[in-house]
Fold this sequence. Notes:
- With 337 residues, the protein is an alpha/beta fold.
- The chain has one domain (5-310): Alpha-Beta Barrel (TIM Barrel).
- 42% of the residues lie in helices and 11% in strands.
- Strands 1-8-7-6-5-4-3-2 form an eight-stranded parallel beta sheet.
- Helix 8 runs parallel beside helix 9 (188-198), helix 9 (188-198) packs across helix 10 and helix 10 (211-224) packs parallel to helix 11 (262-275).
- Mean pLDDT is 95; it is low at 326-337.
Amino acid sequence: MPKPILEQLSEGVVLGDGGYLLELEKRGYVQAGPFTPEVSISNPEALAELHREFMHAGAEVLQTLTYYASEAKLATVGLEGKVDEINRAAVRIARQVAAEGDVLVAGNISNTWEYDPDDLSSADRVRALFEQQLALQMEEGIDFVIGETYSYLGEALVAVEAAKQTGLPVMVTMAPDNNPRSLEGYTQAECARRLEAAGADIVGLNCLRDPETTLPLLQEVRDAVSCYVACQPAGYHSHPEYPNFVSSSGFPLALDPMQLPRSVFGEFAVRARDMGINYLGTCCGAVAVHTREMARALGKLSAEERQWRSSDGRVRSGYELQHTDSGHAVTAAVTPK
């Protein structure tokens, strides 16, 4: 059995997994636009394989694919009444894969698009949606709760309230838009302070922005709280003036050229660790190779690979043809016959 999340965090940085819905859309299992998670019942083997990829890349936590798995969101694609089936299936799949590698499973709740700060009754509707999902996930067995991608602090606070009722550790992360403040106007530092005061064990930031545009806000969060801090940035390049990748002209069907190289996440992991961030992962656009680079940078996976060379000195790979042993590119000399 893996150690509980808070115990692991007390011992060092914990590495989470990466983005699911956008990657599953690229593989043909999710519809771009609504990005609802019915893949857990329509193509469970595809979800299990992606969980497995993140775990093999070094992830120590698998999140259930229950982002957008609330009644209100599922109803937008004609999946009314499927909340029970989708949430239960998602937890079972994550648990099955996690057992193969002895890692934790985090139940997931997310922004609902139902919260309205000008409508006091909306908080009650959102709370009911969260409680419905969490009751199902608890019955199937989760180790802690992650609430993520909140642009309204008010909705994030409702998530903390609902998640604390489970008795499990709670992590809640805000998603800074082009304007880095919450939609009510709070700084990310103030959001973090209020989430900690509400009882969240882990607070932080996730998605929408790339590592470079997230790190300054992350420092503000770290300076503002005494609890554990998490960060799971997006895997797409952010425009300096409009850092939310969802606001780019490439969203949702032309994001491929914006995907960040793996090295960016290795560098991010080291910078965030040195900043005192406790839980690191990735979000939309990031895949297993990004997780693996972070795992190597953090020393959770070996950076060494097996030695290879031809026994007679002849070139037998494109890499050998184009690079010297020191890694500098060379031009191959070809002699016409």
